[in-house]
Amino acid sequence: MSSIILNIPESINLKTFDFSIYLASKMYEDKILTAGQAAELAGLSKRTFIEMMGKYGVSVFSTSSDDLSNDIANA
Prior knowledge:
The chain has helices at residues 16-29, 35-42, 46-52, 65-73. By secondary structure, it is mainly α.
């Protein structure tokens, strides 16, 4: 796994875990990562990651029938 070093101002009170799940949820929302990949990035099980998406305002439900068909085919 690759590493990225970010300098976050001390005035922003983010724990390492909070930042990783925030990044993973955004990348999942933007369809850059699958739910499984995003869960791995956040250090969570896929189930836990999906359950936490509501906290970050990310829907886990597909908005198109093509996406749903692809999800079913890849399940």
